[in-house]
């Protein structure tokens, strides 16, 4: 059989990938040749074609891993199944992209294979969404008049949308599909003319003054511009500013009671540091700017409270967009800001201006049915980050909910997982229920962390064998880890069982976050205990 009898697909691991060597070693461990493109016979049966796609997906999962996914899922066992909705959708879309880029088929058999693969991939994308479906409960049109007015203004100014705005239970405002939307459909298209970016700043009267301020970033200048523009009755964006809340209710606005409720968690320090940084930034600018230029920077518009409001606006509503000149800009995008975040979003790949239409498009990565809330990905963000800067905790299991660990990272030699521990500049844990490998030497815990602890206990450690010395070292490693997390659990304190319904919004959020932290820490302790039992069982099998 010649090469013409095969269909070949190029899924290349980029050499610029920061984890290129690690991923390449894992590809080999999985039985793939990184330099050879997978292929399938054109005469393949549907079952053989499915096996081919399964192999492609396993390869694509690894190619599309980000740092956290690689840290936790970077072993052959974990790569057999879906690791996270984000990774699975990225993997499937990278295969779709490869099919679209493959040479145009001249014969019917090859065209048929391409079509069959496309159809199966779309089915698998639908399955990812069905596993993590978020129910949409619309609370009538109450309180959404301003939002509807903004939507009408957008359409008059060139916005194209297949989404409507509604008040959604548990999420405030949300974007709802007006029709059944399929993979690849453009849910929303925003012309550059209504995107709030630095171009508006350059046209303003404050720019000549601000550009002389030492060390001030364009983002900060734009933030100061928006503080004044909010009160400009003649602003082109008046309808947009009118839809914004008086209070964003992010972690940056937590009151004393909520801050106290976070005692014992790392989030307490994160919020305090963020607020301290913003206060320092404010004090460097004001009242100096208002004193020297009271007409351009009226003191009543540039108070600390209004500055914090503007910071919350930009943190929670801005998007990074690549413009046609290749420059990445931080922007506010009217109407698109109504799209809420999900760990299994409908829209993942956005953020680049289409040069042909001079607009920002939001294509669907998975289908969204009529009346369903259409979700966006704000990024691979932890719940602590989402709470601090956006003011909510995501629904479902967030694979990016990690607890960082403070270890001195030594220069270690290569481990059995094909990477040296020094490849990781830091270590972390997450809920062990997310791991698929709870066997001996794994325990549902991240391999790089275990390797680091093994070497710390026994510098001569090289690999895992069922010898007495190795098993005893493992028990000590899990004991060390348990001690760390017992202390963490103690710091978090007991769960408060009082009625939370009467608490303020910030205290409720703080308590919900601590419940999540306790659950993660509890899972680590349970895995350490179960792992120790496994090791003790193996020790009993060894001759005395």
UniProtKB/TrEMBL annotation:
Transmembrane segments: none
Superkingdom of this protein's organism: Eukaryota
CDD domains named in the record: SET_LSMT
Keyword GTP-binding found: no
Entry annotated with the keyword Methyltransferase: yes
Database matches in InterPro entries: Rubisco_LSMT_subst-bd_sf (IPR036464), SET_dom_sf (IPR046341), SETD3_SETD6_MTase (IPR050600)
One GO MF term: protein-lysine N-methyltransferase activity
Gene3D superfamilies per UniProt: Rubisco LSMT, substrate-binding domain, set domain protein methyltransferase, domain 1
UniProt entry keywords in alphabetical sequence: Methyltransferase, S-adenosyl-L-methionine, Transferase
GO BP term, example: methylation
PANTHER family: N-METHYLTRANSFERASE DOMAIN AND SET DOMAIN CONTAINING PROTEIN-RELATED, UNCHARACTERIZED PUTATIVE METHYLTRANSFERASE
Protein name in the entry: SET domain-containing protein
């Amino acid at each position: 059989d010649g090469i013409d009898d095969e269909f070949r697909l190029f899924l290349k691991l980029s050499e610029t990938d920061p984890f290129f060597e690690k991923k390449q070693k894992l590809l080999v461990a999985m039985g793939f040749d990184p330099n050879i493109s997978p292929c399938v016979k054109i005469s393949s049966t549907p079952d053989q074609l499915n096996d081919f796609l399964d192999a492609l997906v396993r390869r694509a999962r690894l190619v599309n891993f980000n740092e956290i996914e690689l840290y936790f899922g970077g072993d052959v066992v974990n790569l057999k199944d879906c690791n996270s909705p984000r990774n699975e959708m990225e993997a499937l879309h990278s295969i779709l992209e490869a099919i679209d880029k493959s040479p145009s088929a001249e014969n019917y058999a090859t065209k048929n294979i391409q079509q069959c693969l496309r159809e199966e991939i779309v089915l698998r994308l639908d399955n990812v969404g069905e596993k993590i479906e978020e129910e949409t409960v619309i609370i009538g049109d109450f309180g959404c008049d301003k939002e509807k007015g903004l939507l009408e203004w957008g359409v008059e100014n060139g916005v194209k949308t297949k989404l409507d705005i509604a008040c959604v239970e548990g999420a405030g405002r949300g974007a709802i599909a007006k029709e059944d939307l399929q993979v690849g459909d453009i849910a929303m298209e925003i012309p550059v003319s209504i995107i709030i970016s630095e171009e508006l700043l350059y046209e303003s009267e404050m720019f000549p003054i601000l550009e002389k301020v030492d060390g001030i970033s364009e983002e900060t200048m734009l933030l100061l511009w928006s503080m004044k523009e909010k009160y400009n009755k003649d602003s082109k964006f008046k309808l947009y500013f009118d839809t914004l809340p008086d209070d964003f209710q992010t972690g940056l606005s937590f009151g004393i009671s909520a801050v106290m409720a976070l005692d014992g968690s790392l989030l307490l320090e994160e919020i305090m540091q963020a607020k301290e940084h913003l206060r320092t930034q404010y004090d460097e600018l004001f009242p100096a700017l208002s004193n020297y230029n009271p007409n351009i920077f009226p003191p009543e518009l540039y108070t600390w409270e209004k500055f914090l409001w503007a910071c919350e606006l930009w943190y929670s509503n801005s998007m990074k967009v690549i413009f046609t000149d290749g420059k990445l800009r931080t922007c506010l995008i009217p109407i698109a800001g109504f799209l809420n975040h999900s760990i299994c979003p409908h829209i993942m790949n956005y953020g680049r201006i289409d040069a042909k239409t001079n607009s920002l498009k939001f294509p669907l990565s998975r289908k969204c049915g009529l009346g369903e809330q259409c979700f966006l990905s704000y990024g691979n963000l932890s719940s602590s980050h989402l709470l601090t800067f956006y003011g909510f905790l995501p629904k479902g299991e967030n694979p990016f909910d990690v607890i960082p660990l403070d270890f001195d990272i030594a220069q270690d030699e290569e481990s059995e997982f094909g990477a040296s521990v020094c490849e990781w500049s830091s270590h972390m844990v997450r809920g062990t229920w997310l791991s698929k490998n709870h066997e001996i030497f794994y325990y549902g815990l991240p391999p790089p962390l275990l390797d680091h602890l093994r070497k710390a206990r026994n510098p001569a450690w090289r690999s895992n064998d069922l010898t007495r010395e190795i098993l005893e070292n493992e028990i000590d490693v899990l004991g060390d880890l348990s001690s760390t997390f017992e202390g963490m659990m103690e710091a978090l304190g007991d769960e408060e069982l009082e009625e939370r319904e009467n608490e303020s919004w910030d205290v409720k959020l703080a308590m919900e976050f601590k419940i999540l932290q306790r659950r993660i820490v509890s899972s680590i302790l349970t895995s350490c205990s179960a792992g120790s039992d496994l090791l003790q069982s193996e020790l009993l099998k060894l001759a005395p």
